[in-house]
Every structure is written in structure tokens, then in C-alpha cells.
Amino acid sequence: MRVLFVLPKRFHFDKNLLAKYTVWGETFDYVRRRCDVEAELLDCDLGWVTQRHLIEQLVTRHHDVVVIWSASVADVPASLEVCQLVKELSPETKVMAYGDGPIYAAKLFRHAEFDAIFSDGDPEFAIASYLRHVSNPSSCGGAGRRVANVELLVDGQYVAPGPPELTPPDQWGFPPIDALPIDEYQAYYRNKYSHEKRLYPADVLSVTVSRGCTYRCHYCPTPLREGRKDRRRPVDQLVGWLEGVAERFSQVHLSSPIFTGDPLWVHEFCRALLDRAIQLQWRTTVRVDQLDEPLVKLMAEAGCKTLLFGVETLYSERPEAAEKADVGQLTAVSALLRRYGVRGKAFVMLGMPGQLRADILHTIATLRSMDLVVRPSGYTPLHHLHKMTVEELLQADLEQYDKKSFYNPATGLSKREFFQLLLRNDPEER
Length: 430
Prior knowledge:
Blueprint: E1 2-7, H1 18-34, E2 38-43, H2 51-60, E3 65-69, H3 76-89, E4 94-98, H4 100-111, E5 116-118, H5 123-135, E6 150-154, E7 157-159, H6 182-190, E8 204-208, E9 210-211, H7 222-226, E10 231-232, H8 235-245, E11 251-255, H9 263-275, E12 281-286, H10 293-301, E13 304-312, H11 327-339, E14 343-350, H12 357-369, E15 373-378, H13 390-395, H14 415-423
Parallel strand pairs: 1-2, 1-3, 3-4, 4-5, 8-11, 11-12, 12-13, 13-14, 14-15
Antiparallel strand pairs: 5-6, 6-7, 9-10
Helix pairs in contact: 1-5, 9-10
């Protein structure tokens, strides 16, 4: 069986190359190791890749299944275009989609008659289950059988999946360095026009550490995508892999909804890095209310250079209504980070319900006064999409729903001010 993994092309506000190593690359790695398939990656998001490259794959090479990573809702229009192209040029090829796109806009994927649509559970488990079904449906209970984590199109109707299935963390894939276009990704980081050039070294890599989040932030896709239970790779397995890539990559982003969600695991991980004397800088995402001095000191000693955390918003007139951390907590943590040479990066949302222009300016000024790097993003009401009809979704400008550049005029910020805040350069984070 031949499988083509496709990332569609769209016009980004910013590119997120780190997710290409994890949500895309690690999924691919799991499938090629666990399934009897010949699998390829085609990153149409690369600057030099044109429609010709995709058409050439569809016309000159037979693929049994094309798996489209609709990474965000903003990628949905491009994903639908790729599906239509596949159906026109290679009608015998099955088309499957996974990612945040089908999580929030499944109605559009049904409308476009995708053969398989990721629903919930872990995506690599979904893809592997579907490929086994395509390879031998009779051995799996027939064409109408439910496929784990997948809505399956059967005779014009979608068959709902059974209970969601999760992949054991010790079976998660790793970034397939041999298959990803690493040189092109590093060239993007070196490009003088790249915004990310000042954020990361060219040889940055990302790997999944944990999945799942117990918190219930309505604007975050993580619980829908990964569930609410914290799940983590075995420390020995992860540290062994990091040791193997340390000579090629100078910095690794440890992808985790909340790295500090399991303090015992964090201590074991940091001690393992120190015991093996692995010289590798790393960064990760944490919660401010989970940081204390012994933990920050240990992480810094183990190579941590940047900690990222959500603040979302402070309120100029209602300090007690802070979204995730109050000024006192942030002041204490920023002092800790400076003491141990760790850069702090605060995520801020512009356009949250009830948030005003004065709150936004107060939040950014307060955080910058603490020597924190501020990353503003437009609050994106993804949860509203579930309520929309197919017709409303088709009329909506879904490319705005990129979790970055969605503009809400209700705050009182002009659109120019909004983008000025998004574009303002902070000190280099690297």
C-alpha cells in the first residue's frame, strides 16, 4: 500500500515549523513503523513546492491513500481543494484528513465527501486503523465496520467511530529526520525575511514530550485534540533519543501542553540529562503557578533556556480577574527566570470576551516591564464553529481562524493598532 501525507499550501501570517516535526512528522513516523506501507511526505507549504509537484504525484504515481494534515481551521479551504484535486485526478485513491481542521469543521469535510475524517483519540492510531481497513476490510468485519477514531464514509453515509483509542506514549513516533525536508526548514529560519529567524536558531528541532491537558480553556484545541489526561513519554526513551540528535541540533523545543504538569517526571528528566552530560539547549511550555525556585534552578542546570507560558490578559481596572496569572505571581516568576538565566515568553490574547483596549495595552506594558518576551495573538473563537451550518462555514473566512491574526474590533483597538502589536519586535528570544 502506498500512502502520501500532504500538508496543503496557504498564505500564512506566521509559519509554525515546529508542529511539522511533531503533529505531522511523528504521526508519519508511527504509521511507517507500524503499518505495512510505503509512505511519503509532501510539504506543499515549502516555498519552492508548486501545484505541479502535487499533480505529478497524483498523475504519475499510484497512491492508495492520501492523508491530508489540516493543521488548523485556516488550512481547511486548502485541504478541501487538495481533496477535490485528488478525486478528479486519481478517483481510486482514498482521501483522509486529520488535524484541527476536521476537529472544528467536520461538517465541511463531510460535505466534501472525504473517505475518512479524524474524529478524536490519537491521530496516528486513527490513520493506522484506517489504512488497515483499506488494506483488508473483510478481515476487520466488513465495509461497514467502525474504525477507531475515524468517521468512515460507507455507501454515501458516515459511520461514527467507536470509543476513542489512544496510543501508548512509548509507541509515539519521533520526528523522522531522514524523511522531513530538514534543510529547507533550516533555510527558512536563516532567511533574512523570516520573522522566526530572531526567535530560533536555524537548527532548532521539536519533539513531543507529553499530550493532554486537564485545564478547560474554552479557546484551546488541546483537550479536543489530545484529551484531558496528562500522558508522557518514558524518560529513558526520550533522553536516549535526545542524546542521539544533540550533535546535529543545538536547541530542541519540548512540545507539551504543560511541561510542569508532572513535577516528578520533570525532576527525573532533568536529572537524566545532567547524569548523561547531554549538552543541549531546550525550551518548553509551562504554567506560572507551577514554578518554584528549586524547579526553575534544576531546569536551567539541565539546559532550559526559554520557558513559555500563557497569561492571555490582565485587567487594568480588575486585577483580580487575571486570566491565568496575577501580577504578583508574574513578578516573582520573572525574577526567578532572570536569576537563573532563563528567558520568559508570555502568550497574550487580543480580543478576548470583555477585554478592552486599555486592558490589552496594560497587559503588554506590564509584562515588558518584567523583561518578559511578549507574544500577542488574536483571540480566535474556534468553539463557535461547531454551531455553524455547512452554508455558514462555506461563507465564513476560515483563513482568519489561524490562532494568530483574528481581529475583534469590539476591544476598541483599530485594525492597524492590532497588527502593530502583533508585529512589534521584542528582544531576541534565542
